[in-house]
Amino acid sequence: MEGILGMSSVERERSFVIRQVVEDGLPCRVAAERLDLGVRQVIRLVKLWRLHGDAGLVSKQRGRVSPLRLAPQVQALIAGHLREKYADFGATLAAEKLAELDGLTVSKETVRKLQIELGLWRPKVRGIKRVFQARDRRPRFGELIQIDGSPHDWFEGRAPKCTLLVFIDDATSRLTALHFAPAETTRAYLFALKAHVLSHGVPLAFYSDKHGIFRVNAKEAVSGDGYTEFDRVLRRLNIGSICASTPQAKGRVERANQTLQDRLIKEMRLRGISNIADANAFLPTFIAMWHKKFAVPPREEADAHRPWLGLGASLDEALARHDTRSLSKDLTFRVADTLYGVKPQGSGITMRQGRVQLQHFLDGSMQVQYKDKPIIWEILKTFPVPSPTEDEKTIDCRMEALLAPTRKYLENPSAKAA
Hints:
The chain has four domains: 4-57; 72-118; 144-294, Nucleotidyltransferase, domain 5 (2-Layer Sandwich), CATH 3.30.420.10; 320-382, no CATH class. Helices cover 40% and strands 16% of the residues. It contains 13 helices and twelve strands. The chain has helices at residues 9-24, 28-35, 39-52, 72-84, 91-101, 108-118, 186-200, 229-236, 251-271, 276-294, 312-319, 395-411, 413-417; strands at 144-152, 162-169, 175-181, 205-208, 240-243, 321-326, 332-335, 338-343, 355-360, 366-370, 373-374, 376-382. Helix 1 (9-24) packs antiparallel against helix 2, helix 4 crosses helix 6 (108-118) and helix 5 crosses helix 6 (108-118). The radius of gyration is 33 Å and the shape is elongated.
């Protein structure tokens, strides 16, 4: 608060003590201790008080414009960019983009101050939350990879909602794989896993949530081997699987999701990216930007990844869904809604009631083997099947598919009339 002669509370306290030095003979050493100043500074203040009274103790900097203050025209230029291009950007990201794209180097706090003045930024109200103690990072790159899917409106209405699969290393915060897909499915995770293995090798373990992709959640399941399809692939590659009990337990990937939903969305907006194909093509560039900004060195230099020594075809076999079927008397078998028939080289009598092994590859192709040898097959017939069930992470993709015809008609009403 300001007092007489525009003095602050600190200056009024100095005036009181300095007056005691001049009028009551208080030693300068004692005055220096009371004011937490040096003795020479107290002597200087005594001289100023004798010459100018209390006005001599008022700071000469008050009311002067800082030499570091931005020029009004520069402030107006930055404010214009904040309104037009970075209206929903955070202060840190906005400051980075102002320097990168507009050549305006300014601190993030200055940007935050301008955002507050423009009404573009409000502080978050933080409630009382449960305390989760931070877990130490793993020491080596590749020891533990946290994985998660983030369903979101990644294209801000320019395209249907989709899911971003995120693989992040626990030791370094490096993004080892990113992959956009219409929904969070086993097949989408296998695409991301393939990219990770080809780029870095085979990690020691994955850390995920308890989604049905990663573990069998039916408590009383009596059929099957107790493993999901994704878990079977991990077992073939000798990768450990750990499921977290809470989102906070895998906080590194959860925080990465929040940052990606801020930065990645805005980077794609600035580049005009509006579909999954272009977004996946941009991801390697964004990953390099992420590593430059957020990656940290591991505590130990050794890489925990095991190098993938096989060929691409052998990796495709490891990632394929393996299944078995029994041949009927007419050498047919059924998978889901399709009836297949095999073409034996001979009469095929010995193949009746025989077991064939199926490999469903990521590209949609299928290989059929009988006694570990490939055989020729053909599609005979397709049947209608019930609609698949959806969960909370795939319902958005299903709804977008149902709404697509309506949206197309609203965008072009003349198409239906024609």
